[in-house]
Amino acid sequence: MATKKNYIYLENQIYRILDANLNRLREALRIIEEHYRFIISNKNIASSLKTLRHSLENIEKKLGQKKLLNARDVKSDPFSQSNKKNELNRENSLDVLTANFKRAQESARVIEEYVKVLKKFGLSLAAKRIRFSLYSLEKELS
Description:
The protein is an all-alpha fold. Helix content is 77%, strand content 0%. α1 runs antiparallel to α4. The protein is globular.
């Protein structure tokens, strides 16, 4: 049986997940944006990505930036000091771009799912829109 104490603990862990994935999504979007800005020189796509990245601020505000920051715990993250082998293998800028499309899509999906636990269904839809816009943009690349 869930107690109020257990729920508060769980809520903090959910905010921790959301904080990590909002950061991961923002970082990946920035890397994709820089590719379109400096390598492809496509101002329109770079601007769209910048707008998408800045839209994360709205999600953070609606979740509560203080709650997200309070839930952050880098020291106890078992993956904060290591990389998987494939994360170190980038042959060219397209590898960087592809990896970050995947990272952004996965992070958007995590956000989409976990905000549901907090009953923030509008934010789930916002994360879903981000994810599907990334799917479309990635396809345009191929």
